[in-house]
Amino acid sequence: MAEEIPQLTTYPAADEADQIASLKLIADSVAQQRQLAARSVIFHPVSVGVAMVPLAVAYRILYKTRGDWPLILTTWAGCVMALLLAVRYLTGGYIDEAERVGTWKWLNTATTTATDTGAGFDSTKSTMLVTKFGENIIGTLVLAEQKKQTGVIRAWTVKQRYRGKGVGRDLLEEAVKFCRDKGWEGPVFDDEHANSARVLPGMFNGGFDGGEKRAREMLAGLQST
Fold first, then answer.
1. Which residues cross the membrane (predicted)?
2. Average pLDDT per consecutive 10 residues, the chain (225 residues; last block may be shorter)
3. β-bridge mates for residue 188, sequence order
4. In what side-by-side order are the strands of the sheet with 136-146?
């Protein structure tokens, strides 16, 4: 008999185990931003240009005869290693940020989106929407309520292997439905949502900014239907 395909379900997390798993998924998504940031730095034209300088200098100083190539290649390898260590250091802020979010303290902290509007923030009314594939949580969305009854999305993420399969869109759709059922405005993305941190200069953040723009456009499209 063929193995039964696990069911995909989305619902508000009620028990602590689901909430802890959701917070861990949020923290993991922030930590994964380090890899994307590192890739952005390594392949950026400015970085490539900078990296070529020590390689060219080493070649110019060390090359005298063909027998110098082993030394040159070893020096180049050292330069590349030093550059990779520099990238690792520059993107380390995402690990610090991952340790900050995905915790009960973060979940219960007021946000700029709430306080700037003067609406206030009621942490006791945060709702975690989770998507389960069988018994595994593969997506989560944290929806907080401002006291002026506007839904604020503080986190929205999907497990890496399930991204691009519509799970994230379904979570946003559930958030829109949840707000309508409650009679709330929104939802809107929090300006300080879990994945909003940028630890690198702006020229390296194009991938993150583009992804955020697409997410906001997707949410606006769902709200207009």
1. 41-63, 69-90
2. 74 91 96 96 94 92 89 93 95 95 86 49 73 93 86 95 94 96 92 94 94 95 90
3. 152
4. 8-12, 121-133, 136-146, 150-158, 185-189
Q: What is the dihedral of CA 74, 77, 79, 80, to 10 degrees?
A: 170
Main-chain dihedrals φ then ψ at residue 35, nearest 5 degrees: -65, -45
Length, in residues, of the chain: 225
So where are the chain's domains?
A: 8-15+103-223
Q: Which CATH superfamily is domain 8-15+103-223 in?
A: Gcn5-related N-acetyltransferase (GNAT) (3.40.630.30)
Pick the closest to residue 28 from 123, 104, 107, 103 (CA basis). Answer: 103
The secondary structure of residue 130, as a DSSP letter, is E
How high is the pLDDT of residue 75?
Answer: 94
Q: What is the reported pTM?
A: 0.86
Residue 138, CA distances (Å) to 17, 58, 107, 108, 212 in order: 14, 48, 19, 23, 20
Given a contact cutoff of 8 angstroms between Cβ atoms, the answer to whether 154 and 190 are in contact is: yes
